[in-house]
């Protein structure tokens, strides 16, 4: 690990109290050496990685890390904290903090070295030596692999003053204290040297020695979002546990430096499979039909022995995964035993999730066009024929026309990705064709839904037909797209297209005719749906219903009222939770109060998911309160006649809203109603655990800290 870490990158008296402060302190050392070019940008990348998954590990270790364009060369900084810093580990704060910085285009050699460090952290001797290191040079040499823990301990013993005075550095140790870690860790292997090619660990099994019969065989895969630290730490932990359990265990590390696939013969001979990952396992079908334990990567680090025992138990019971089949992306991510109702919901959500970015981009561009050029901008000539750089009207027309092109993709994308969810990539062509036909015949979103489902079903039926081996190569490229597109086109043009178009027109006419009490009731219903599952399927149905109405060049006034009501109601839950944590903080845990600060921004931006942490911790109080406020806001928005042309944006598109003052009053009324309800319901329960004045703070500090940690790890409804 030469040049990656020097004594200047080591802080043996890290005084930071939070993980953000710790990352900044270590990053400043990197920046001082010119290895980080933009401190703020690098820290933002570290925070983004930390938000994906906490980087604290059992045993007092924190490993914040990221790949960043603001890193000039792979660098490692180390800090040792006397008080400990919370990095989200289940067993408490970390006293050893490693900040790993890899360039966005780091080469395999450097990533191999970083992975070697990750493996060393699983060595008890290595971490004990770092805790007792008396000076920064020794700590850096240990991490680089220039000295072994035993050599470092011996050097410190020789250098220790005979009078027993404190040695130089931040740690005060004696010869006996220095020797203890080595004695206690005698059976543990020496740390992996920096030259060891960590990713190349799939060349042979890890064995515990000969046995009368062949030992239990396990193949494993580890992976994490960045593929630098957790991936290799989990691999090392599993290999060590395999040795102790007398199990042949081979690990495939799917890291940033790429990966070497396990030998198919090893997989075929394996008695069980362990998948420890936080990103999708590549080529997962290789392990189909085997007893499998599928967990997060941290489980591979913290409880490898349990995972090995669990896979052995599954093998003994004959519990295996389904054999490899032509599963679709949605089916592969589903749970065993799911019914067609659940799968149908996932197929539809697959289409909606791919459609939403087109809705947001196209809708906002169209709204900007109207804001700049007025409501006659839709009559402007094509910017290909007339565009003046200095005229606002020309820019308005450009924004409007780009947004219109983006909107034209909505129905085809919806249909295409519904078909993709059912039949994988072969479903894309007929899905897009069917969606485009739905637009051509004015069947709208209903036609897109039907086209997507039909396309997926047709492709699935074709795939089940037995064909000669010689023709299989051209099936996905020629045969399936040709036949499926022809069948879907025939059905959409000749059979079901006209009835669906009639139904779409009827729904549009009904919406256009809504007024008075009917409109208010619809607003309340949409508000309830938006706040029921906070970004889930019911929320998405209401949102899709609203965006379908404005996804035309000239939406009706009723459609824009519905869009306004939906966005207003969706802003209520996070804003209400933010307000509640502000006015009655003692009713919420420390973590919830921190989430409340972020909820202000999320709610103002129309991101309903900002209330999910509160709903997960206390669903019986939060969800009904949010629904009541959302229903009130939706009803008031419709009653006030507020309109909205943009499908997203929150308060940032208020200038584009019709009757903006009354619209904001509707939002405020719902927020106050939800806040009042949730405060009242939580007051009946009393102060939250860990909140100021709460019962748990009356006890010892240690007990309170453990309770707070448990709350962070696993929110439970009170």
UniProtKB/TrEMBL annotation:
The record's section on InterPro entries has:
Bacterial_PTS_Sugar_Transport, PTrfase/Anion_transptr, PTS_EIIA_type-2_dom, PTS_EIIB-like_sf, PTS_EIIB_2, PTS_EIIB_2/3, PTS_EIIC, PTS_EIIC_2
Transmembrane intervals: 352-375, 395-420, 432-462, 474-496, 508-530, 562-583, 622-641, 661-681
Indicate how the chain sits in the lipid bilayer.
Multi-pass membrane protein
- What is the protein named? PTS lactose transporter subunit IIC
What molecular function terms (GO) are annotated for this protein?
Answer: carbohydrate:proton symporter activity; kinase activity; protein-N(PI)-phosphohistidine-fructose phosphotransferase system transporter activity; protein-phosphocysteine-sugar phosphotransferase activity
- Tell me which PANTHER family the record gives: FRUCTOSE-LIKE PERMEASE, FRUCTOSE-LIKE PTS SYSTEM EIIBC COMPONENT-RELATED
Q: What is a single Pfam family found in this protein's UniProt entry?
A: PTS_IIB
- NCBIfam families, sorted: FRU, fruA, PTS_IIC_fructo
């Amino acid at each position: 690990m030469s040049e990656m870490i020097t004594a200047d990158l080591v802080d043996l008296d890290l005084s930071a109290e939070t993980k953000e402060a710790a990352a900044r302190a270590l990053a400043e050392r990197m920046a001082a050496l010119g290895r980080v070019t933009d401190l703020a940008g690098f820290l933002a990348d570290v925070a983004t990685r930390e938000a994906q998954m906490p980087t604290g590990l059992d045993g007092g270790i924190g490993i914040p890390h990221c790949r960043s364009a603001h890193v000039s060369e792979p660098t490692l900084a180390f800090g040792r904290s006397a008080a400990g810093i919370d990095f989200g580990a289940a067993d408490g704060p970390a006293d050893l903090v490693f900040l790993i910085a890899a360039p966005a285009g780091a080469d395999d050699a450097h990533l191999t070295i970083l992975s070697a460090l990750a493996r060393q952290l699983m060595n008890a001797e290595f971490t004990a030596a770092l805790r007792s290191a008396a000076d920064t040079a020794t700590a850096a040499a240990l991490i680089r692999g220039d000295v072994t823990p035993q050599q470092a301990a011996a050097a410190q013993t020789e250098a220790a003053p005979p009078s027993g005075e404190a040695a130089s550095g931040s740690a005060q140790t004696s010869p006996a204290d220095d020797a203890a870690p080595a004695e206690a860790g005698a059976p543990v292997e020496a740390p992996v040297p920096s030259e060891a090619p960590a990713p190349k660990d799939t060349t042979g099994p890890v064995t515990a020695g000969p046995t009368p019969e062949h030992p239990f065989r396990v193949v494993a895969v580890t992976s994490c979002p960045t593929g630098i630290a957790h991936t290799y730490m989990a691999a090392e932990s599993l290999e060590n546990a395999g040795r102790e359990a007398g199990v042949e265990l081979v690990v495939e590390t799917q890291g940033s430096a790429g990966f070497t696939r396990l030998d198919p013969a090893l997989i075929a001979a394996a008695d069980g499979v362990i998948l420890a990952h936080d990103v999708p396992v590549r080529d997962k079908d290789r392990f189909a039909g085997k007893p499998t334990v599928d967990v997060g990567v941290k489980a591979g680090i913290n409880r490898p022995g349990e995972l090995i025992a669990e896979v052995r138990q599954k093998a003994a019971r004959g519990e295996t995964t389904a054999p490899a089949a032509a599963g679709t992306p949605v089916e592969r991510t589903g749970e065993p035993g799911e019914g067609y109702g659940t799968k149908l919901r996932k197929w539809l959500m697959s289409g909606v999730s791919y459609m939403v970015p087109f809705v947001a981009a196209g809708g906002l561009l169209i709204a900007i066009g109207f804001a700049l050029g007025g409501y006659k901008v839709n009559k402007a000539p094509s910017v290909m024929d007339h565009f003046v750089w200095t005229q606002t009207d020309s820019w308005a027309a450009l924004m409007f026309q780009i947004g219109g092109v983006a909107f034209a993709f909505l129905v085809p994308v919806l249909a295409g990705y519904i078909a993709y969810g059912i039949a994988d990539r072969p479903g894309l062509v007929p899905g897009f064709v069917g969606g485009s036909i739905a637009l051509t015949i004015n069947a709208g979103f209903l036609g897109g839904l039907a086209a997507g489902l039909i396309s997926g079903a047709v492709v699935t039926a074709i795939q089940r037909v037995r064909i000669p081996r010689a023709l299989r190569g051209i099936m996905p490229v020629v045969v399936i797209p040709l036949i499926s597109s022809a069948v879907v086109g025939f059905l959409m043009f000749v059979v079901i297209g006209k009835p669906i178009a009639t139904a779409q027109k009827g729904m549009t006419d009904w919406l256009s005719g809504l007024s008075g009490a009917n409109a208010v009731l619809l607003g309340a219903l949409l508000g309830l749906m938006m706040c029921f599952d906070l970004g889930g399927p019911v929320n998405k149905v209401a949102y899709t219903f609203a965006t379908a109405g404005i996804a035309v060049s000239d939406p009706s006034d009723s459609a824009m009222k519905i869009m306004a009501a939906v966005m207003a109601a969706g802003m209520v839950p996070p804003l209400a939770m933010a307000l509640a944590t502000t006015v009655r903080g003692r009713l919420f845990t420390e973590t919830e109060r921190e989430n409340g600060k972020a909820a202000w921004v999320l709610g103002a931006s129309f991101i309903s998911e900002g209330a999910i942490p509160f709903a997960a911790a206390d669903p019986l109080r939060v969800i009904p309160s949010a629904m009541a406020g959302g229903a009130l806001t939706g009803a008031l928005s419709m009653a006030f006649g507020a309109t909205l042309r943009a499908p997203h944006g929150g308060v940032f598109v208020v200038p584009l809203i019709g009757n903006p003052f009354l619209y904001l009053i509707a939002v405020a009324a719902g927020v106050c109603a939800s806040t009042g309800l949730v405060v009242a319901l939580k007051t009946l329960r009393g102060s939250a655990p860990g909140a100021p004045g709460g019962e748990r703070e009356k006890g010892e500090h240690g007990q309170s800290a453990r309770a707070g940690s448990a709350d962070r790890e696993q929110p439970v409804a009170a």
